[in-house]
Each structure stands twice: as structure tokens, then as C-alpha cells.
Write the C-alpha cells for this entry.
Amino acid sequence: RQIDDYKQYRLKYVKPATVNRELEVLRHIFNLAERWNTFYGKNPVSKSGLLKVNNIKERILNSDEEYRLLKGSPTYLKNIIVCALHTGMRKSEIITLTWNNLDFDKNFITIDQTNSKSKKQRIIPINSKLRNLLLEIKIQSLGTEFVFLNSDGLPYKRQDSLNRAFQLALKKANITGLRFHDLRHTAATRMVDSTGNIVAVSKILGHADLKTTMRYAHPHDSLIDAVEALAIYSSVTHAQE
């Protein structure tokens, strides 16, 4: 009963997938207790069960949608969206970004391990467009600690603070089925499509497993490119002969 009540309480604040991760921790605790003979009976978490999670298909923003979204967003939100599309950073990483995390001499952003999902520090290069935007924001920052501020000019206190503004921008741009996290998927897909460098993209995104990044690749295209490379090699070899 307590586990059932816990699930309903947590669903008021977080998504089912998050609740399930918490339940898995609790389940493991009971399993350990049973192993150490400090708990007897059936694991209450297993008996209560995990929540059903509807896996939402990843959505990629096309260029026309990007234009409409940026046009329909207030400046403070537009800046955040541009950062997401040009770095692949998570929302939590963006809204907690400080000027100390930026190095304009070497052109990179440092994501501290305390603010990274993988709990590992990572370095993200800053491209020319994002650099210009960040320098413009810095000039107008008036010495604030955080790079991105809300509509009141204050730091974000919660991850869901952007939700309402983002939804309003989507509605204004007539875009459906897009989550903020899909901006990260869009950035990843664009980087893989343009460079084909899975390893580099994986490091930028902070994926612990390369297989996670592989979902942004298009195997069919890569197979064609690989075989076509043999034709080019053969042509060069015959020309030399």
C-alpha cells in the first residue's frame, strides 16, 4: 500500500520513467535486505509493480520548423533554443550554465561533473554562430553569474520553468509533437549526418555508450558510402596502372 501511494504521489511531480527509476532503487534495497536476512516476505516493490511508460518517438526539427520556432519565441527563450541546437546540451545543463563554464579563448564550454547526467566532466566546442550569440549575451549580462536568465532577468530555479514558455512558442509556430529534449536529438542527428563522426558526436553529447549515439546514424546510407568508396579506390588504382 505504501508503494502504491508513493507512486501516485510522485506522479504529481515527475514522469513515470523517473518514478520507475526510483522504484528500482527501492526494489534493490529490499532485495539486499532479503539477502542479508533482515527482511522476510515478497518484495513489496515487485508486488506493486512498475508504472507503464509510453515511449515517445524522438522528433527531429526541420529547418522550416526551426525558423518558425525561433521567430515565435521571446529573446530569452530563443537564445536557449539556439544553444540547444548548436551544442546538443540538455535543458538542465543549459539553464544552469555559468560564465565560468565558458572559455572564449579556446572556444569551448565545460559541463561540470556535478551538472552532468553521466557525472563526468565534458567539453563542448563553441561554433561561430553560438560564439557570437554568447558574446552578445555577455555584453548585456551586467555581471550576472548565469548565462541564461528567465523573462524576469533571474536565474532558473527549476527544470520545468521553461515548459510554459516553450509550449506557447510551439503553439505560435504551429508545431506539434515536439519536446524540448528533441532539440538535443535534432542537434545529434545533424552532426552525425554532416560529419559521420559517431565518436566525436558521442563525446559532445556525453554518452557513456557509443550504441546510444548510433541511433542517430543511418546504416543504409553508411553502407552505400562504404561500398562506393571501393569503386572510387578501384578507379584510382586502374588509373595508376
